[in-house]
Amino acid sequence: MTRVIICDDHALIRRGIRDTLSDAPDIDVIGEAGDYGELRALMRQERCDVLVLDINMPGRSGLDVLHVLKDEGSPIKVLVVSMYPEDQYAIRALKAGAFGYVNKGGDPAQLVQAVRTVAQGRKYVTPEIAQMLVESLTAPEVANAHEKLSDRELQTLVMIASGKRLADIANELMLSPKTVSVYRARVLEKLGLSNNSELTVYAIRNGLVGE
């Protein structure tokens, strides 16, 4: 029996994932968490084989959680389930230690298969991600400027482009406004942009946010 914990800040999404996985006779969803703090508390109480993890969460993002678990040498296999398209976060998540990446809009059967695959210690990637991995090997140069951004800088870019104020971003990420301003300045410098309007246009053109 594969023991699974779901971590997503939206209760409705957690319910949908739980219902999907609960239909599988070999998968047992043993708990849910809405943020990093709840996840850590739950992991101290329960033994988990697979963590189904969202990328976009308040406080520590899913990428942050991946880095922490990797640094700790955790044996838990992480399957990232995200609303973001594969070409924006899949490679980052896999490099950070994830065993697989599935889009939330995909087939529920795909989610079950992905959990089973990573539980066996194997990587789960869609054909689209496999193609991106091949292309990244044959063309190692950076194709998009935002690929040079750190995980936190990319997160800041997406949130600014989504219309959030720096104060709101600081509150959501549990950082000081000054720190968020530093991330914003780095993003502007690395992308060669001047202001939030240009950031937003760049993010839309590159599919980082919807129009």
Description:
- This is Response regulator transcription factor.
- GO terms for molecular function: DNA binding.
- It comes from Ideonella aquatica.
- The protein is α/β, with parallel strands linked by helices and about 210 residues long.
- The protein has two domains: about 1-140, Response regulator (Rossmann fold, 3-Layer(aba) Sandwich), CATH 3.40.50.2300; about 145-205, Orthogonal Bundle (Arc Repressor Mutant, subunit A), CATH 1.10.10.10.
- About 55% of the residues lie in helices and about 15% in strands.
- It contains ten helices and five strands; from the N terminus they run βαβαβαβαβαααααα.
- β1 (about 1-5), α1 and β2 form a beta-alpha-beta unit.
- The chain is globular and about 55 Å long.
Write the CATH fold name of the largest domain.
Answer: Rossmann fold
CATH class placement of the largest domain: Alpha Beta
Radius of gyration: 17 Å
**Chain-averaged pLDDT:** 88
Number of strands: 5
- What share of the residues does DSSP label as strand, in percent? 5-15%
Query: Which regions contain 5 or more consecutive residues with pLDDT less than 50?
Result: none
The secondary-structure element order is EHEHEHEHEHHHHHH
Distance between the termini: 43 Å
Largest sheet: 5 strands, parallel
Strand order of the largest sheet: 2-1-3-4-5
**Number of helices, counting only DSSP H or I runs of 4 residues or more:** 10
How many separate domains? 2
Protein name: Response regulator transcription factor
Pfam families: GerE, Response_reg
Keywords: DNA-binding, Phosphoprotein
GO biological process, one term: phosphorelay signal transduction system
